[in-house]
Amino acid sequence: MAANTGPKQGSFKAIRSRRGQFALAAAVVASALIFLADALSPIDGAVAVLYTGVVLTLAPLGRRFVIGSGCVTAVLTTIAFLIGHADDPLGGAHLRYAVSLVAIAITVLLSLRDRSARTTLAEQARILELSHDTVVVRDRSDIIRYWNEGAERLYGWTRGEALGRRCSDLLEPIVSAEEVNASLEQNGTWSGEIIRTRRDGTRLILASRWLERRDPDGRPVGIIETSADLTESRRALAERRSSEQRYSTIFNSAGFAALECDLSKAMRLILDSKAPDQDCKSWLLSNPQISRAAANEIGIYNANSAALAMFEADTVADLADSNVMLGQLPDSEPALAHIFALLAAGSSLAEIETRCATLHGRIIDAVLRVSVLPDGQDWSRVLLMAFDVTERNEARAKIEQTSVELAHSGRVALLGQLAGSIVHEVNQPLAAIINYGKSGKRWLTRPDPNLTEVSDCLDKIVSNGNRAAEVVGRVRALAKKTAPQVSSVDMGALVQDAVSLLARETRAAAATIRVEEANIGGPIVCDRVQVQQVIVNLLMNALHATRGIADRPHEIRVKIDGTAENFIKVAVEDSGTGIEGNPERIFEPFFTTKSDGMGLGLSICRTIIEGQGGRVSASNNDGWGATVGFTLPLNIPAEARWSKPNILI
Q1: C-alpha neighbours within 13 Å on the C-beta side of residue 362
Q2: Its pTM surpasses 0.85
């Protein structure tokens, strides 16, 4: 557009320059002719009045030309008067001379005034062109007489296309004609909203103001109107209202507690009380009274029905007065410190599980999720969502208790399968004790007692007694019904104990069990009894898998590998028949490959291992048999374990 405008402006300037030169030349010629006529004419001074035409001719060229032409023509009038009437007595010639000067002066003043008025009108017209609003001037017949650039941009019609057309035909307005006409007739103005159509058919909503134009006699001759486009603002307002309505609907119909809060006072209290270099969370934990005081500053200005029901309140005002969401329970103070510290650090989201008290004093477990809304400044608009997890936690506790009982039942059932081995393992040291006791008695009843042999027999009795006690201790450990208790465990020793416990079953299956250890390092933290239960179960399954195998040795290898980063792996590899289908299915509840099995053993194993942060796995070997094993983390603290319920089924 700039490239097209430049030549037009240059051409216009050139034309105006040529016109100015022509006007100036005409004024000079006219001035010379008038001067000659005035000086030589017998009409005493009457010709000088024609100088006003020279002033008017040069008036369009500017203020300087008007004043200059007035001065020059006044001088020429004076010279002509002096030439013809210098010695004349005061009379009619002098009067005509004075009238000519007055006429020239009046013409100059009127030209200057007209020039000023024209300049003002030109500036006003330029302002109208620069306006972003539309400016349209119409006559009484609704014919468009003026159409500014704002109208071109908004309506899509150029000035040349709009001028001379009826405005109602061009823009198809939708407005109450009766209301407009009544306002114009009564007040001469009308303002309101009007709907018009763009060139492309788009409907526009406009804020329009109309002013009635009148002639000098007061008769209406047309309308001047200005209009501003409200379409986008109305659309944005409608979308905002729709968004607010959707938010309100979701907020009120949500199945969880939702509250709109103002945390600005609470956060200011914390930030004003804390030293700049202090860690906010540790400082709040060491000063719980600050957290409680900040909680009392939380303002609640809206809550949905689920929140009222959860906290046993009748109205939002009840919640605002009691402020039970962040509670006054001592065990809620760490939750307060966690939330306030995250918000103080600039986070817009904080979530934690804690305990709250309802208005009736009932203690509930709740997950609190705090979100700072983007249109809230300095934590003034915060959405607090609360999820009542009391029933979930109670169910989890019951499931954990059931899991413990089921694991205990599994161990007792396993001991039933190992009853023969237990009896054999206990009978062997008992029989040895009896034999060594008899032998020692014989050595004492000899005429010459051999005390050395007696001492040796007593040592054997003590050794076999300890052996029997170890067997009984292992059985008691498996049969003991206790909650999971983590401790430092030597995995190699734990596997050896399990192998010893299954010695008789191993001999009955004509199998050999080899334990291979690689880079175990130090002990790990786990529940000794439950992990031993898993190892015994895996070994029992491996021995069962080798039954009926006649073409190869019944070999079982237990590999303990500590090379994996932060994990220790225990794998039981057998030379049996392998696992049909997907090997991972053996960990599903009630899945069994045994005709007399219930399919719970490996499911219990999976729950035990996953409850301690580990994983179970199963796969078929390349040759024959299968490998079933598990991994446990080495360095996870004990309090981090059992993070989820031990769901066995």
Answers
A1: 12
A2: no
